[in-house]
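Please fill in the sequence for the structure shown.

STRUCTURE ENCODING:
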């Protein structure tokens, strides 16, 4: 968008706000109600939004099969089954190292603590001196002051896995079936939406939905390719360095990379902890952390802008606010889906005239 066009868009938005403030106040109230509904009914809306994004991601291969005269239902079923098989294979291959790491998490943290103490000897000495000073200045306890203290240990992480697995399996099943139905009825669904619209808006509605699907499919496909490439590069670098279970950390890096800003920081911390627990050589620890830092910086500043270009029409403030908003609405899952959902809102706002001000605010 040129500078002149951008200024004209801002002027148009400002004039509309000043011309009809009551309507925008009512729109704000409606937006608050929508936020409340999304938060309270997250068990319903989260699978629906996840299925919609997954259907947009898988639409190109389904369309390719339909063009080869494969029935829509069969094409959607083949693509969904293939994705499920790949996902199950990945989960099975990573389940054993993940379970092993979880079972050894307390021991790993103790090793990390010892390594940190070895590296930061001056800080350790300072803490020990402060503890001695506290012992000297504290008042001695009398026998009557001694009281029995009973603590109930909280349940371990592994004890919560069965219930969590059941909930995740139920949500995953809902997403899989809904994705299949959306893919199988994609073209017919657009035609039905066009049929219920007034005749003067029918053509615009169908074309707008088709353009929205095309743009979101391209963005999601490119984005997933970037995340998978980052995970693969992380796996290769950690394998060369000698960190155990590099495939697990590569998969985790690909997933966390969906969360802007915070995902890379969290993965950097994970690699640092595992390197401290594994290597006695500080140089290898720095090499593991530094390699992921270089990969992350190249991905965020070179690869993503080069491949996505104008397909990510969001400014930095919109991305961060989207992360906060969707994370507040749906927790970790909302944070993972934050950028695709915000892009979807932006694409819709650009095509719906009453939402043009929102599109301008989110625009890059």
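FILLED IN BY: designer on duty
SEQUENCE:
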């Amino acid at each position: 968008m040129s500078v002149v066009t951008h200024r004209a868009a801002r002027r148009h938005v400002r004039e509309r706000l000043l011309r009809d403030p009551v309507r925008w106040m009512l729109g704000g109230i409606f937006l608050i109600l929508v936020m409340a509904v999304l938060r309270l009914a997250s068990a319903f809306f989260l699978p629906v939004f996840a299925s919609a994004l997954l259907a947009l991601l898988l639409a190109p291969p389904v369309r390719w099969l339909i063009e080869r005269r494969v029935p829509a239902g069969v094409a959607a079923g083949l693509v969904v089954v293939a994705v499920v098989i790949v996902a199950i294979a990945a989960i099975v291959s990573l389940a054993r190292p993940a379970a092993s790491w979880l079972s050894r998490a307390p021991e790993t943290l103790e090793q990390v603590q010892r390594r940190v103490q070895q590296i930061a000897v001056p800080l350790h000495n300072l803490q020990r001196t402060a503890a001695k000073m506290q012992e000297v200045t504290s008042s001695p306890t009398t026998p009557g002051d001694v009281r029995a203290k009973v603590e109930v240990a909280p349940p371990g992480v592994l004890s919560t896995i069965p219930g969590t697995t059941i909930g995740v399996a139920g949500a995953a099943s809902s997403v899989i079936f809904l994705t299949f139905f959306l893919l199988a009825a994609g073209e017919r669904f657009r035609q039905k939406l066009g049929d219920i619209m007034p005749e003067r808006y029918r053509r615009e509605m169908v074309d707008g939905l088709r353009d929205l699907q095309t743009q979101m499919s391209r963005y999601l496909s490119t984005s997933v390719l970037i995340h998978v490439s980052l995970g693969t590069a992380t796996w290769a670098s950690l394998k060369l360095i000698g960190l155990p279970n590099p495939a697990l950390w590569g998969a985790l890096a690909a997933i966390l990379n969906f969360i802007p800003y915070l995902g890379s920081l969290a993965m950097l911390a994970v690699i640092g902890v595992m390197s401290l627990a594994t290597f006695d050589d500080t140089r290898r620890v720095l090499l593991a952390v530094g390699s992921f830092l270089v990969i992350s910086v190249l991905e965020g500043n070179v690869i993503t802008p080069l491949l996505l270009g104008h397909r990510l029409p969001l400014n930095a403030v919109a991305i961060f606010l989207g992360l906060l908003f969707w994370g507040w609405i749906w927790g970790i899952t909302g944070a993972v889906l934050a950028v695709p959902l915000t892009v979807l809102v932006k694409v819709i706002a650009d095509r719906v005239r009453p939402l043009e001000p929102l599109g301008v605010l989110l625009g890059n």
